[in-house]
Amino acid sequence: MALLEVNDIEVRFGGIVALSGLTFDIEEGQICGLIGPNGAGKTTMFNVISRIYDPTHGTLNFSGRNLLKTPPHQIAKAGIFRTFQNLALWPRMSVIENVMAGAHVRSKENFGTAMLNIGRKKEEKQLATEAFSILHDLGLEHVAFNQCAGLPYGTLKRIELARCLIGRPKLLMLDEPATGLTHSEVDLLSEVITGIRDRYDLTILLVEHHMGLVMGISENVVVLDFGRKIAEGLPVEVQENPAVVEAYLGVPAS
Amino acid sequence: MATAPRFQFTEGTPQYRTYKLIGYGILLLLVLVVAFAYNDTGSITLFDNDYKVSITRVTKAISFIIAILGLQVVAGFTGQLSLGQGFFFGVGAYLSAWLVSDHNWPWLLTLVVIIPTCFIFGMAFGIPALRIKGLYLALVTLGLAAILPSLILLDKLEPYTAGAAGKQTDSDLVPPGWLPLDGIVDALHKLPLVGSYFGDGDGLSSREEQRVWTFFIMTIVAVVCFKMVGNLIKSRPGRAIRAVRDNETSAAVNGIGLAYHKTMSFGVASALGGVGGMVYVAELGIASPGDFTQLLSILFIVGLVVGGVGTLSGAVIGGLVIAFVPDWASSTQNFPGVPERWLQGPTGGLILGLMLIVLTFVLPGGIVAGVRRLRARFVRVNPARPPLLTTGDPTTNALADSATVDAASVND
Ligand SMILES: Nc1ncnc2c1ncn2[C@@H]1O[C@H](COP(=O)(O)OP(=O)(O)OP(=O)(O)O)[C@@H](O)[C@H]1O
Ligand SMILES: [Mg+2]
């Protein structure tokens, strides 16, 4: 059984059909690329899995569980974490607090115990240690106590990644992680992604316009165009698919 | 970024502890000075104006401070603009007045009724916040605050609230016999140089002793409230509410339940409002409907903004400002360079309004932001570096290989 089964998903915004009849599976441990031209519906698919948008049609199963029956804030508990295309950090919290808050579903303090200081210090120490270790591993140790506001874009993207990792995701969804990075940084990013996949036992769904990155590390690639799947397969297969070439270049492949 | 601050401390070191101890010591000293220097209705004279600094007004300020602390939780940290804090302040005030005068409860015991009641009402109050935001939420909550005086005056409730006349209470906050408040003030009076500021040398009347004692008790209540909110902010639920404030979408995606955290935060804030109300009546001795209009809620918001939104110390400054500034403004009858007739009439609201406008442009973070900026020139506190996970832990070495190369790339 696949980890995530997307079946016949359709999303409409008024008259716009953002996704239609979209079906694909992600196997456990896989890096799955989701590509397509601007406006193809990639982020919309992420938002469906995060339960930000309700699909008008279709089903969604995650390790056998019906995600569409799961409320949005239970998605993280189920093991799905994501980054955002346009960053969605909490700017008035420090970097390390952003990461510590990513462990929300794994930590226990509630309003009562926290205010009465029952077990609070212990949990704070544990979370700070874990968050700092992850920041250290991502080379972000030196900004741990900065506010997020004012840090470079690439750094912020990485902080978002750290915030996901501390939640110990089963499925990690990355929305354009390479935006704003230089060429050499993109190469490093491939290593980071494959590295975390292996060490954290992750399954990764990757949306990215940088073809070198997606094709280099994905085991399966799903191609969208105008909300429909136009191709799926190994990177080499997809790259040679005439429909894909046409979607990207806007002319039929000769 | 001129020169580095003169004093630098790292959290957790003995030097840092000394620095904090000195800070707390100064605060304690301030409390003692207020308690013993201004127990008679003392005043400061400036340009021929008498500015009253009586201890009763400081106790009143404490009640405002606790209410604004509650607003910090819901508005400052959760980002839900509530103009209803005065409602809970009033509910707390009337509940405690009723329990104390009709049922002979001790003041502090009334908190076991006030806190749960206001908490539950507050959670219900927060339900609109799940649907509406910003200005609309402010209007809805303001509406609720506006109905409190008419609720108090309802015929059905009159036996409990004493209607328009106000609910009288007798203070039972009598200092214990073993505490020589009298002796302390006499000893202070004999001090060289500053002695004359401490009373008139003939000890304290029992009325004055009660005032000092009420002030002490309520200061302790406030300190406990601050400690609890401080704990909350630096914990899992505290980060969760701040995440909700900063970005609801990513909060939800990271597993933070928006409805739960918003309603809980309204509950905590309202409970604090109720506690503030108790302090208010315990000091004043009477709860009257005219004190708990929507104007009070707005005054709390003014205190919140002037002090500094989203900071604990902002609540202290905000409470002091709204307790003292309007009164001082109306006590100002002469001011160099200002025509006398400009100083007549209700100048209090005007001054508060001006403070608000000026601060929004000059110091958007409130007075606290200014103080912090100033302090940063002299003192910097560096956070303690947390330890790294030791090997064997699942997250250890997660990216050890790529991290070394990565570290280089983030620096640019
Ligand atoms: N909330 C929304 N309301 C209305 N239309 C929307 C909404 N979200 C997305 N859309 C539309 O759905 C379509 C798919 O958008 P989506 O953001 O998923 O594209 P994408 O593949 O992520 O593109 P990009 O590569 O530019 O990020 C677009 O036409 C977009 O305008
Ligand atoms: Mg997108």
Q: What does it look like?
A:
The complex is a heterodimer of chains A (254) and B (412). By secondary structure, chain A is of the alpha/beta class. Chain A has two domains: 1-79 and 169-254, P-loop containing nucleotide triphosphate hydrolases (Rossmann fold); 90-167, no CATH class. Chain A is 37% helix and 23% strand. Chain A has a six-stranded mixed beta sheet with strand order 6-7-8-3-9-10, with helices on both faces. Chain A has a four-stranded antiparallel beta sheet with strand order 2-1-4-5, with helices on one face. In chain A, strand 9 and strand 10 (228-233) form a beta hairpin. In chain A, helix 3 (95-101) crosses helix 5 (120-137) and helix 3 runs parallel beside helix 6 (153-165). The radius of gyration of chain A is 19 Å and the shape is globular. Chain B is 62% helix and 5% strand. Chain B has helices at 14-37, 55-77, 85-103, 111-125, 134-146, 148-152, 158-161, 181-189, 206-233, 236-246, 248-253, 258-284, 294-307, 312-331, 347-362, 366-376, 400-410; strands at 7-10, 43-46, 49-52, 167-168, 286-287, 379-382. In chain B, helix 2 packs parallel to helix 9. Chain B is globular. At the A-B interface, helix 2, helix 3, helix 4, helix 5 and helix 6 of A face helix 9, helix 10, helix 11, helix 12 and helix 17 of B. The structure holds adenosine-5'-triphosphate and magnesium ion (MG).
